[in-house]
Design goal:
The protein is mostly helical. The protein is built from nine helices and no strands.
C-alpha cells in the first residue's frame, strides 16, 4: 500500500529548496550539506512552533528565533508560514509512504503474493508510523490549517484510493471499487484513532483491531 495521510490527505505542489535543485555545474559538498542542514533546522523549529501554537497562532518570528535562521532564509527556502506547514505535512506523508512501501517490498521479497496480505502489511506499517508522529498528526487533523489545505488532503485521498486499488488488483467494476474505498477508509479511521492516543500499548491494540476489520470486510 502506498500510504496517504490519516484522513486520506491531499497532494500538493512541493515547497522545494531552490538551492538544492539540479544544476549542470558542480557545487562544493559543504554547500549542499549546509543547505540541507539549514532546511532541516527551520523545519524542526517550525514543528515545535506548530505543536505549541497551532497554525493560526504560530508566527514566523518564533521559527526564526528557534532555528537561528533569518527571516530571509526562511522565505528563501519555503516562502512563509503556510509553506512551512505544508512542507512538514509533505515530509510526514513521505515518511508514511516510505514505511508502507518498504514493508510491502519486504513482504514481496519474502515470497508474499496475495494482494490482501500485502495490503495488510502496508496498512500495519502505515498505522505504526502514524502513531510514531502522533503529536504532529493531531496538528494536521485539527482543522487549524492554511487556506486550501483541505482540498490538498482530498486530492491526496483520491490518489491513495487509486494506489490501493492497484495494490489490491481490484477490477474496474462497482463492487471492487467500493471494497477498495471501504478498506482505505478503515485504515484512515484507524490511524485517526491511533493518533488520538498517547499510550503505545493502546495504539497497538487499535492497530490490531483495525487490521482485524480489514480481514473481516475483505473475506
Amino acid at each position: 500500500m502506498v500510504a496517504g495521510n490519516e484522513m486520506a490527505a491531499g497532494a500538493t505542489a512541493e515547497a522545494t529548496d531552490t538551492a538544492t535543485a539540479t544544476d549542470a555545474s558542480p557545487r562544493p559538498p559543504r554547500r549542499w550539506s549546509r543547505t540541507a542542514k539549514t532546511r532541516a533546522s527551520i523545519l524542526d523549529a517550525a514543528r515545535e512552533v506548530f505543536l505549541e501554537h497551532g497554525f493560526a497562532e504560530a508566527n514566523v518570528s518564533d521559527v526564526v528565533d528557534r532555528s537561528g535562521s533569518s527571516v530571509g532564509s526562511i522565505y528563501h527556502h519555503f516562502g512563509g508560514k503556510a509553506e512551512l506547514y505544508v512542507a512538514l505535512w509533505e515530509d510526514h506523508e513521505e515518511a508514511l509512504h516510505d514505511a508502507s512501501s518498504r514493508a510491502v517490498q519486504a513482504a514481496r521479497a519474502a515470497g508474499e503474493r496475495d494482494p490482501l496480505q500485502l495490503f495488510i502489511v502496508g496498512a500495519r506499517a502505515y498505522l505504526e508510523r502514524a502513531w510514531f508522529d502522533h503529536a504532529m498528526v493531531r496538528v494536521f487533523l485539527s482543522g487549524d490549517s492554511p487556506p486550501g489545505f483541505e482540498a490538498l488532503r482530498r486530492a491526496r485521498g483520491q490518489d491513495w484510493i487509486r494506489e490501493n486499488a492497484q495494490l489490491l488488483r481490484a477490477a474496474d467494476e462497482p463492487v471492487a471499487r467500493v471494497l477498495v474505498l471501504v478498506l482505505t477508509s478503515i485504515v484512515g479511521d484507524g490511524a485517526r484513532e491511533v493518533c488520538s492516543l498517547d499510550s503505545r500499548s493502546e495504539a497497538e491494540q487499535i492497530i490490531e483491531v483495525t487490521l482485524g476489520f480489514i480481514r473481516k470486510v475483505a473475506s
